[in-house]
Write a structure and sequence with these properties.
Layout: H1 7-16, H2 40-65, E1 69-80, H3 81-86, E2 94-100, E3 105-110, H4 112-122, H5 139-160, E4 167-174, E5 188-198, E6 201-210, H6 211-216, H7 218-227, H8 234-244, E7 251-254, H9 262-266, E8 284-288, E9 291-301, E10 304-312
Antiparallel strand pairs: 1-5, 2-3, 2-4, 3-6, 5-6, 7-8, 8-9, 9-10
Helix pairs in contact: 2-5, 2-7, 4-5
Amino acid sequence: MKRALTQQEIDAVFAGSPAVQTPSDEVQAFDIRKLDKIPKSQLRSLHLVHETFTRNLTSNLSAYLRSYVMLSLVSLEQISYGEFVEGLASPACLAYISLYPYDGTAILDISTSLAFRFVEILLGSKEQSFISVQRKITDIEKRLFKTILSVILRELQEAWNSVADVNFAVSSLASETQLNYAQGAAEAMIVIAIEVCVGGTSGLMNLALPALFIKRLRNKFDQLEQIRRAEATESDQVHMGTLLQNAELDFNVQVSGGSVKAETLLDVSIGDVLILGESCNAPFRGFLNGRPQWLGGILEESGKLAFEITGTIS
């Protein structure tokens, strides 16, 4: 049954329609740099890589300094290079690190209190009490400090081997951040903050990696996620064994022979006999998928040839 709508019903329909709603004049700001955000799955893999790095560096740096060293991963976040520089102390202890064979430069920031404590231990100081020094690191101290950096970068490279072959090497050391901008201020960086405790002194070590470098290795991180799987449970193993029971394998039996000259084979005809190098009592060898597995003999069973296993081949 057809019925015409009243004017009241028509007005109610148009009043609720989105097409006739008054547009909002409010404009929301959009940060284009959000497009460079690293996926969460990749950040998880980065977290695992640097957890391995801190764990290995704890033991190796303790052995190198012959002093108690404790490292713990504090945070992993993505910020701009300008924000990273603004958060650094002055004077600072910065190591600019090349990422061969990839483009870009990483930055390792170690608090000056830690840097001077490392130098003191290398010079033979065993005192637990240490007076924090707020000054630039000298050229002689830089030479000593580079030995610590070599240990740190060796462990960093070892941890990154699970992702890609990256050669981390110090290109320069600096004390002032304003004098050397390795990236544009708006460039995205992945900053890994690690707390370091050594000889009664504690401080932060910040490793800043270019986000573009991380994004170029996205496929490597995806492969790492696929490899990292949980071990099969007992029920999974039983299920897999059940599925493999009907799988077909190639099995054949051979007798060891000797060497025959090519001219002899060319003259072979029907009825000729070739003398093998093995005794007639020598056991036959059973091959599974082309690999020798068992020793045995040939016999007849139910009108068919059979292989009786008498031993195994190691």
